[in-house]
Design a protein that fits this description.
By secondary structure, the chain is mostly helical. It has two domains: 1-38 and 118-159; 51-109. It has helices at 2-10, 19-36, 40-68, 78-107, 112-158. 8% of the residues are buried. Mean pLDDT is 87; it is low at 1-16.
């Protein structure tokens, strides 16, 4: 899993073939499978349910992003603000309904202890990815600073 994450962190944007996305997905699956200690029988039933849940959750998130797209958050009218608040409340309720629907289905496949481990694994994975992205951003900033310093020294040498 660490190798997969390292590869993804080195190239977080898909290069047309979805390689980074597939590496990220493989790392997520490995982490969840390991943390939940899924038996083969559980994994066979769990992953189709979980993937369907994740797909529906992503679709909901995309829909919310579309709602916010093109809105100047600094200059909202009262009507736009009301619409956005209603959309956000609906999103939260729909998300809760979706979670309830799948918790019941998934709970038929894994234990309550594994359900708790699933939530922790999802949170840990998200934090790990955000940390890797932040680390990559810092490294890129350091490289840019070094390049700028070299360019400045080169220019000073030419004067």
């Amino acid at each position: 899993m660490a190798t997969t994450l390292t590869g993804w962190a080195q190239n977080p944007t898909p290069n047309g073939n979805g390689n980074a996305k597939s590496k990220l997905e493989a790392a997520r699956i490995a982490m969840i499978t390991e943390r939940l200690n899924l038996s083969p029988a559980q994994a066979e039933k769990f992953w189709p349910l979980y993937n369907q849940f994740a797909q529906e959750r992503r679709a909901m998130q995309q829909q919310m992003l579309q709602t916010r797209k093109g809105i100047d958050m600094q200059n909202l009218t009262e009507e736009q603000s009301k619409k956005l608040v209603r959309a956000h409340q609906k999103f939260k309720q729909d998300k809760l309904d979706l979670e309830n629907k799948y918790v019941n289905r998934i709970n038929d496949v894994i234990s309550a202890r594994q359900m708790v481990a699933l939530k922790k694994a999802e949170d840990d994975f998200r934090k790990m990815i955000l940390n890797r992205l932040e680390q990559r951003k810092r490294q890129q900033l350091q490289r840019n600073q070094m390049m700028n310093q070299r360019e400045q020294r080169r220019q000073q040498g030419n004067n």
